[in-house]
Amino acid sequence: MDFVSSIKAKAKQAPKRIVLPEGTEARTLQAADRIIEEGLAELTIIGNIDEINKLVAQYNLKNIEKATLVDPQNIPNKQKYIDLMVELRGKKGVTPEVAEKQLQDPLYLGAIMVKAGDVDGEVGGADNATGDLLRPALQYVKTLPGISVVSGAFIMITEDKQFGENGMMVFADCAVLPNPNAQELAQIAVATAGTARAIAGFEPRIAMLSFSTKGSAKHEMVDKVVEATKIAQEMAPDTQIDGELQSDAALIPSVANKKAPGSAVAGKANVLVFPSLEVGNIAYKLVQRIAHAEAIGPVLQGMAAPINDLSRGCSIDDIVNLVAITVCQAQAK
Fold first, then answer.
1. Is residue 41 within a helix (H) or strand (E), and if so which, with residue range?
2. Of 320, 273, 227, 329, whose CA–CA distance to 4 is shortest?
3. Domain 3-142+304-332, CATH among 3.40.50.10950, 3.40.50.300, 3.50.30.10, 3.40.50.80
4. Coil, helix or strand for 331?
5. What is the structure's pLDDT at 331?
6. Mean pLDDT of all residues in the chain?
7. In whole angstroms, how far apart are CA 242 and each of 231, 233, 269?
8. Burial class of 144 by CB neighbour count within 10 A (0 to 12, 13 to 18, 19+)
9. What is this structure's pTM?
10. DSSP state, residue 300
11. Which fold has domain 151-296?
């Protein structure tokens, strides 16, 4: 069974409630029809009901009637959401009038549905920029306890089975935070451990990457990774985390034996945490293109509830798969 099939199988075991805030976007509705047909999730779809029905008829979608449709202009639990929004952000200037106006935006409505516990997760971004999706999520859903940053991980599946877990690895951060400090980098490592367990399905062995291995080079950039490693180890003492490691020391046993003897991670890392977004983004794209690896993601991590962002160039398959991943994150939560 391939990775996507295994994720779908896991999602089907305990489908969760996922909100799609872009219900009038054609690919999203077509994906929703398949998600319902495959039994991957219980869907709430936000959008103008007339527009949704037109698309349903246009694409001959048979399963949308099994979803819960919510029109931002006619919200069943409107007062409950307004009260919650004022409670959470009244000190930030959110009055009942401001909250009511925000609820007309499907992205804000989706986020407060997650916060209220009416749904278990959210998938959007097919028709909106990442910042627009994350802004209401960060304002109302917020991050996990002990985590102040959101990051993006990729599940990398290579044809060479000697790396990671039979060719599968997790790379982070490759999508969100440009230049994390040591504390933030440690949080990314801990959050990625959760992604490895919930999505990739393996126990993480995390390498904190640098251009130095165990003091082979001296630089403030190395110092950041050394400090981040110590913080991450303190945050997650039951997780195998080691650094600073060069990528060859992290992945190749013979190199690890020379550069980092005795390390429980070196030579067999299955999670790579990069020192900056620049490095992580370049690395995953190089592996994807040169090694012909499959790159699944980004999976957003660090949020108090699973909220995931699509590329605006996404396919219907991408939406279906990301909803299945979001269900698995909600199961783990």
1. strand 41-46
2. 320
3. 3.40.50.10950
4. helix
5. 95
6. 95
7. 11, 8, 9
8. middle
9. 0.87
10. E
11. Rossmann fold (3.40.50)
